[in-house]
Amino acid sequence: MIFLFRPWLTLFAGVTALAPALGVAAEPARPNVLFIAIDDLRNDLGALGVSHARTPRLDAFAASARIFTHHYVQVPTCGASRCALLRGRYPSELAQVDNGGIAATHATWGDANLPAWFQRHGYRTYALGKITHHPGGRTGHLWNEGPEELPHSWTRSWIPTTPWREAERIMHGYANGVPRTPGKTPPLEAFDGPDDAYPDAWVADEAVKNLRELARSPAPWFFSVGFFKPHLPFAAPQRYFDLHDPEKIPALETAAAAKPAWPSGWHASTEFRTNYGHGGRDPATDPAYARQLRHAYAASASYVDTQVGRVLEALQTLDPAGNTIVVVWSDHGFLLGEHAIWGKHCLYDNALRSPLFIRAPGLRQPGASSAALVEAVDIFPTLTDLCGLPLPAKLDGRSLRAQLEVPAAPSTKPARAFWRDEGRSIRTDRWRLITTRSADGAPQYELFDYTNDPAETRNVAVAHPEIVRDLQGQIARGPAFPGPTQDAKKKKKLAGIFPQP
After folding, report:
1. Does a cis peptide bond (omega within 30 degrees of 0) precede residue 163?
2. For the whole model, what pTM was predicted?
3. Nearest to 159 by CA among 207, 208, 214
4. Residue 487, domain member (yes or no)
5. What strands lie across the sheet with 423-427, from one edge to the other?
6. 224 to each of 36, 131, 380, 391, how far by Cα in Å?
7. Domain limits at 198?
8. Which of helix, strand or coil describes residue 318?
9. Structural contact between residues 170 and 164, judged by C-beta atoms closer than 8 angstroms
10. Average pLDDT, stretch 471-476?
């Protein structure tokens, strides 16, 4: 890897220009970046108004950051969402809506991805845990060997040494090193033991250790730390279950929990139903089981909250002046029975909406919320802006500097989303249009009005044909890539190589 260093004054010009706008004195120094990724975390946080959540550490961080209440990812699955984030671009080929998108297409990117771009401009870049689709960044046997998922981009990419050993096993780990047995092990577990009975405590330990080492580094760094929970299985120490009264976790209204009665992009929750054993129970017909699953998800969110908090507390000790840019992000949401779906892999709001908090040095009005529509592709240009780096060409995202300066700054574009079989969605401040195809290939439309129906219980496409036409036109003006009719053979091959986790 060749590092291209610019003269100090040129390289820091962007930081100098940005600093007064954020209310911080101009200094010729490149800020470090701590990027924290959390897997499958929906907006169930106290800081986002969810009363039953027990997430005090993330809530405390949010009070020091800008809270983006309407952040949306581009693809509702782990690898493809991270692909869009790291490219700062919408999917441009079919592989990029699948979990193998990074491994399958990185050769076409050059250094126009987030870590490689920072590395090119003098940063040391690190990926601990799950940042790309494969924890540790390897794509071979048990994700523990073989080709790098995103080569020539990281100074180091790794997972900690744990009782689970291999990356695929740590990804789906049960207590004390036990791996998942697909189709047999349960989707939830409460173990009466310490935090390090589960993998995320090991990630936090490793992150704290490395932050201490990085604090002594003369070179600027970009440190990405990826946590696993609350991804399935919903597993955590018993004490995190004890934080929650399952009777106080609200059940869904009947209409919100119903399978759509109209032609839709509904799916049968394959990840949840086939990768785990349920002992004959089904949350669609067993309210007690549904309550148990929501309880376990909340406990897993509380567990990861503690582990993320440990990393943030270590940074506070090492950088009390707050000169490090910190981003907390989740790769997508998760439906807990909404639309009779248990999972993501769809274009409904709860699958695409996830937490995003950004703290920058000198941030004005910390803890204030921005209701602007923002996207995962916006994170790349935002970080280059905050660090005074030039932008690669052709990014689809836009810097969120305006919302960091003024929380009430409005949306600047709709939020776009993509899924298989030519699934597309566009979200404006009021509306979401989802376009999919029926079994015979005919187009079908779902239109939701969030002003009057925030739970998406009514498809109003027939009642508002003019809105459908307008939003469909906006979708058509967006990026295009081969659909299944043009590239079915390649799609089938990719699905076999990169199954859903």
Report:
1. no
2. 0.92
3. 207
4. no
5. 415-419, 423-427, 431-437, 443-449
6. 6, 7, 13, 20
7. 30-415
8. helix
9. yes
10. 96
Dist CA 55 CA 59 (whole Å): 6
Higher pLDDT: 34 or 4? It is 34
Q: Which two tokens stand for residue 434?
A: 């989802």
pLDDT at 499: 39
Nearest to residue 97, comparing CAs of 74, 118, 124?
Answer: 74
CA distances from 406 to 65, 88, 143, 403 (A): 13, 23, 43, 5
Q: Per the structure, how many domains does the chain have?
A: 1
- β-pair partners for 124: 221
**HSE of 234, CA atoms in CB hemisphere, 13 A:** 25
Residue 476 lies in a domain: no
Q: How many CB atoms neighbour CB 497 within 10 A?
A: 13
The CATH number of residue 361's host domain is 3.40.720.10
Over residues 295-302, the mean pLDDT reads 98
- Residue 483 pLDDT greater than 90, yes or no: no
426/435 Cα distance (integer angstroms)? 9
**Cβ–Cβ < 8 Å for 398, 381:** yes
Cα separation, 417 vs 80, in Å, equals 11
Going by pLDDT thresholds of 50, 70 and 90, the confidence category of residue 178 is very high
* Residue 204 within any structural domain of the chain: yes
If DSSP codes are grouped into helix, strand and coil, which group holds residue 67? strand
CB 80 within 8 A of CB 74: yes
> Which among 107, 130, 89 has a CA at the least distance from the CA of 229?
130
pLDDT of residue 479: 85
Q: How confident is the model at residue 27 (pLDDT cuts 50, 70, 90)?
A: very low
Whole-angstrom distance, CA of residue 463 vs CA of residue 452? 14
Mean pLDDT, range 297-323, rounded to an integer: 98
Segment 86-105 shows an average pLDDT of 96
Tokens representing 198 are 């589960």
- Domain presence at residue 458: no
Give the pair of three-digit tokens for residue 298.
């909340």
| DSSP state for residue 436 in the 8-state scheme | E
Q: Hey, what are 373's tokens?
A: 């529509």
Question: Based on the number of CB atoms within 10 Å of its own CB, is 394 exposed (0-12), middle (13-18) or buried (19 or more)?
Answer: exposed
> Distance from CA of residue 346 to its chain's centroid?
15
Residue 35's nearest CA partner among 89, 86, 79, 78 is: 86
Count of all residues that appear for the chain in the document: 501
